[in-house]
Amino acid sequence: MKHAASRELYAYWEERRGSRPAPERAEIEPGAIRGVLSDAFILALDGSAGHPIRLAGTRMCALFGRELKSESFLNLWGAGSRPVVASLLSILSDECTGTVAGVTAQNASGDPIDLELLLLPLGTRRPIFARTIGVLAPLNVPPWLGASPIGPLALGGRRHVGATQEKRLLPRFMTPRGRRGLVVYEGGKSELSRATRVKEGEGPSAA
Length: 207
What we know:
Strand order of the largest sheet: 2-1-5-4-3-6
Strand content: 15-25%
Order of helices and strands: HEEHHEEEEHH
Number of domains: 2
Helix content: 10-25%
Radius of gyration: 21 Å
Number of strands: 6
């Protein structure tokens, strides 16, 4: 992650979630992430309504030259990027998988700006209240920011982040130390080839 706001929010989100896929929405304390708030936003994960923006920081609103609360997040994107962003939000909702991505835009004069997008899931017991927290922050602050609104956003390179993604990167029969039901074996290929799964509560067979 390139932007300090993205790194700070992700570190706080990781701390709050612990061993869970995502922290609860009520566990996010604005005072703990003061340095992030001007670039941060919260979305309702409601695809039928275009994922409405519930909260948007002052600098994010300044990018577009207007208050963004209640607007469709998808409508901030150009036609080519909108289906991909919708798909990323669907993955986030279904699998609790976040995304960090590069974003570009231009103002009315054609001046470009590079931004970073971070999307992170928030847990809830009721799907109707599903939310995501994120950051949309300029990597460099041009002199015209706040005076000349940007147009539609264009999505660039991206990668997934979060607990689900970390699990996928592990070898298929290994899991982080301390998880129930599996044992992690040390050593190289020769030892792994001799390793067998051990059911919870049972020891290995006697030699």
